[in-house]
Design brief:
- Keywords: ATP-binding, Nucleotide-binding.
- By secondary structure, the chain is an alpha/beta fold.
- The chain folds into two domains: 2-143, no CATH class; 151-409, Rossmann fold (3-Layer(aba) Sandwich), CATH 3.40.50.300.
- The chain is 35% helix and 23% strand.
- The chain is globular, with a radius of gyration of 27 Å.
- The N and C termini lie far apart (74 Å).
Length: 450
């Protein structure tokens, strides 16, 4: 009997604390308004001082969304600049426990009650995070659940993302993928070490395994070949480049292929690769696009090559979709000079990792926010047709990546000692197996396909 009474008291106490906690969450509005006023987010109108005014409050599984009217004279950037003050102010408690009634009902009173309560309190300690948006009114989302800081890639993602879908990552409450059939071109930006190149590697590995017979890659690695070298001998790679002149060959061959397909479609009376029954999709992946920007290039000959590259990229981005060509461009230097306007205009999908400042964020996303991302590898803002979502991308380990790539390696040429770079090229349409009269010898590698 004493046990039952004690249990009831404990249950009532925990339930009461839960109610108080949830009530505190609901009162975040008053705290937000106080923080805004105390941090200078106000305007003077005569003798009156005006600040944000609550329009509505909505409860979600992840927390609350507050929508405010912003007084004339304040901009969205004013609030973005005070994001840290708003978030820190909401977390200005000695301890914040996110306990729900469902959590209370999991307690087993036949076991060690005190230990279960300790474990529950320890597990449910949390830190609120906020995100700010503006669509004519200020939206502040207060999340009671933190974003995961690391996600490991696993094989279930191959099943989860079929067709031409690739994993993007996890939000606080759902998983997001990107479908290149619906949104064919993507711009990726972010500072060094944020996860940009890892994402490109994951995309290649995913499509190698899910679209083995249909995917064709044109890989342009302008970071000295350090990113895409493991893929260059895959049978799905039809062209590979590490220098601007090699990139031009890749892009020219892609443009010529598009024109050939256009002529074929005209003769057959079809409009696109789907109507033509063509399953192949060509992915042109460029890392780092700033290296083929003609802006600030002092060498006249190199500048001419880069201008031609920019022309072909523009052509492919504008007209390549119907012929099954997709472009993924990546840069760690997101500036107006380095990202071609045609690429931005035609890339409805954007992925922005942490960037240096608001200007760089606007180049990638056309809005700020990328500069405010936490310093977490793999954290990014995914934008699809104008809608932004903060995600944590899965990380694909190098060992797993090599295992996924190995079955697709084919016979390749090995350069003989003393042979010239020109005779060793395997770029564009020059990658022909079994060619004679050269200085290359064939090396047959035993793979899982042999």
């Amino acid at each position: 009997m004493f046990f039952e009474i004690g249990s009831s008291v404990v249950m009532a106490g925990v339930a009461g604390y839960t109610f108080l906690y949830q009530s505190g969450n609901a009162n975040d509005n008053s705290k937000i308004q106080r923080i805004a006023a105390n941090s200078g987010l106000t305007v003077k109108e005569g003798k009156k001082t005006r600040t944000i005014q609550l329009l509505r409050k909505t409860k979600y599984d992840w927390g609350f969304e507050y929508v405010y009217r912003v007084p004339l004279g304040l901009s969205f950037s004013d609030f973005q600049n005070k994001r840290d003050q708003l978030q820190d102010g909401l977390n200005n408690k000695s301890s914040l426990l996110n306990i729900t009634l469902d959590d209370v009902l999991t307690i087993d009173f036949k076991k060690d009650l005190l230990q279960q309560l300790k474990d529950l309190f320890k597990e449910k300690k949390s830190q609120k995070e906020i995100e700010l948006f503006y669509d004519g009114a200020l939206k502040i989302r207060v999340y009671s659940k933190l974003m995961p800081e690391a996600i490991e890639w696993d094989e279930t993602l191959l099943e989860k993302c079929k067709g031409w879908k690739v994993p993007i990552g996890e939000t606080r409450d759902t998983f997001i993928s990107h479908d290149f059939e619906k949104t064919p071109h993507m711009l990726v930006g972010g500072s060094t070490g944020g996860g940009k190149s890892s994402f490109l590697d994951m995309v290649i590995c995913h499509l190698l395994n899910n679209q083995t017979e249909n995917v064709k890659f044109h890989l342009i690695d302008l970071k000295g070949g350090v990113e895409f070298f493991r893929f260059k001998d895959c049978k799905q790679v039809v062209s590979y480049a590490e220098e601007p002149d090699e990139a031009l060959q890749c892009l020219e061959s892609a443009t010529n292929k598009i024109k050939e397909l256009q002529e074929t479609f005209r003769k057959r009376g079809v409009r696109n690769c789907k109507e033509a029954g063509i399953k192949e999709r060509h992915f042109i992946i460029i890392d780092e696009i700033a290296e083929i920007s003609s802006a600030d290039e002092p060498d006249k000959e190199v500048k001419k090559i880069k201008e031609q590259c920019e022309y072909h990229i523009s052509q492919i981005a504008r007209i390549g979709r119907s012929q099954g060509f997709r472009i993924i461009t990546a840069t760690q230097h997101p500036t107006q000079d380095y990202v071609p306007k045609s690429v931005k205009r035609n890339s409805d999908a954007r992925l922005c990792f942490r960037v240096r400042d608001a200007v760089a964020s606007k180049v990638v996303l056309d809005t700020t926010g990328g500069e405010s991302l936490p310093k977490v590898v793999g954290r990014a803002i995914y934008q699809d047709k104008g809608e932004n979502t903060t995600v944590q991308l899965p990380y694909l380990e190098t060992g797993t990546m090599d295992k996924m790539t190995h079955p697709h390696i084919v016979i390749r040429a090995r350069k003989e000692e003393g042979s010239t770079k020109e005779s060793d090229k395997t770029n564009g349409q020059n990658r022909k197996e079994g060619a004679t009269g050269g200085t290359d010898t064939l090396v047959i590698e035993e793979t899982e396909l042999s």
